C-alpha cells in the first residue's frame, strides 16, 4: 500500500507554519487529555491536536476495519497491535481528511469544534503503557568517551562492543512524558580516594540525549526477528532523555551495569513519529568493521538522518544549545538492535520501548551528555549569563529537540523537556 500521506504536494486546510515539526506529512500519534478532561488518542498537524476518537465516532474512519473505540483509550498499545498496514491506512485517511481540497470536515464547524483543539488546550500524556524498557549503548563515540572517562583510556572500547549491540534492561515505571519535572535523587557513592562510600543527593546529575523506538507485538516467545524484517515491527520513534546520576552510576555499575543511577527518571517526547513518515530520511549508518555475525547482517538502509540537539536553561538564562548531533552516527541500527534482542527467542510486545543509548558524534560539540561535554567536570560549560556548569543544578531545564529536514520538507519530533527539582531534605 502506498504511503499517500508522504506526498510532498499535499497541503492542509489547517494553518501550519513553515518551521513546524508537524506538517501534514508527519501525522504522529499520541495521547492527550482534552479541556473537558477526557483522555483520547490523537494526532497533531501544526499547532493543532486532533482527537481521533471523536473523528471515529463521527464516522470519519468507516472505510477502515478498526475496533470500535480503538482511539477512546489512554494508550496506543491496542492500536499498535493492529499492525503496520492499519497504521498506514489510518495515516493516509487522516491525510485525506485534512487535505485542502477536502471539505467534509473543513466545512463542518460542529465536527471541527468537537475534534480539533489548539495544542495549548490539551495536556500530553505518556503515549504507551510500557511493559519493558531496554536501553542500548550503540554510539561508538559515546561508548569510547565513557570508557576513557570511567575506565581505561588505552582500552576504551570493550572487546565485545564491535560485535554486539550492547544493552541492558531498564525500568519502565519511572518513564515520564516531556514536561514532568525530575527530582534530584539520593544515593550511595564513593569518591575515588575515599575508603568508604557516602550517602547523599547526587552531585553529578546528567542528561543523555537519546532516541527510542516503540515496537509492536512482534514475535511469539521462542521466535526470532530478522534484521530485514525488523522495521515491520517498529511503530515509530520518540526523543528520550535518560537522566543519569554519574556518581551513583560509577560506584554501582560493576558487574551488572546501570541500576539506581539511571532508573529514577527517563523522559520521552509525547508524539510517536512513525517509520513511514521518516522514510524520506533513510540513510546508511557508519560502515561496520569487523563484519557483524550473520544474524546481524541486513540488506537495507536502516539508519535515519535526524538532527538532534540538547539545550540548557537556568533560572535566569534562556535556552542555550550545548549538543548538536545526529541519529545517523549510531553504529548499530534499530533493525540490528531488534534482531539481537530477539535472537534468543525473547518476545517483544506492543508498547515496548528501546532506547538507542546516548548519541554522540566525533566532535566535542556533538557529545550527548555533560559527562562527555565537560569530561567529568574538568572543562565546565560556559553559559551566556557568566555562570558555568559541570553537571545539572537545581532549577536547570534540559530540552532535547529533533527533526529531519531536506529541501522539500521538515519532519520533527517536538521536544523532550524536564526541569531539575532540588533533592528531598532527609
Ligand atoms: Mn542511556
The Rg value, from CA coordinates, equals 22 Å
Low-confidence stretches: none
Most strands sheet: 8 strands, mixed
CATH class of the largest domain: Alpha Beta
Beta-strand fraction estimate: 25-35%
Query: What distance separates the N and C termini?
Result: 59 Å
What would you note in describing this structure?
- 16% of the residues lie in helices and 27% in strands.
- The chain has 426 residues and is an alpha+beta fold.
- The chain folds into 2 domains: 4-124, Fumarylacetoacetase, N-terminal domain (SH3 type barrels, Roll), CATH 2.30.30.230; 133-421, Fumarylacetoacetase-like, C-terminal domain (Fumarylacetoacetate hydrolase, domain 2).
- The strands form 7 sheets. Strands 6, 7, 8, 13, 14, 16, 17 and 22 form an 8-stranded mixed sheet that branches. A 5-stranded antiparallel sheet has the order 4-3-2-1-5.
- Strand 23 (381-382) and strand 24 (388-389) form a beta hairpin.
- The protein is globular and about 70 Å long.
- The termini are far apart.
Features:
SH3 type barrels, Fumarylacetoacetate hydrolase, domain 2, 8-stranded mixed β-sheet, binds manganese (II) ion, 426 residues
Question: What's the gist of this structure?
Answer:
The protein has 426 residues and is an alpha+beta fold. It has helices at residues 52-57, 77-81, 84-97, 109-115, 140-150, 246-252, 275-278, 334-342, 370-373; strands spanning 30-33, 39-45, 48-51, 116-118, 123-124, 133-136, 167-169, 175-177, 182-183, 186-189, 198-201, 205-206, 209-215, 234-241, 244-245, 266-268, 273-274, 282-283, 303-304, 307-314, 317-326, 353-355, 381-382, 388-389, 397-405, 410-421.
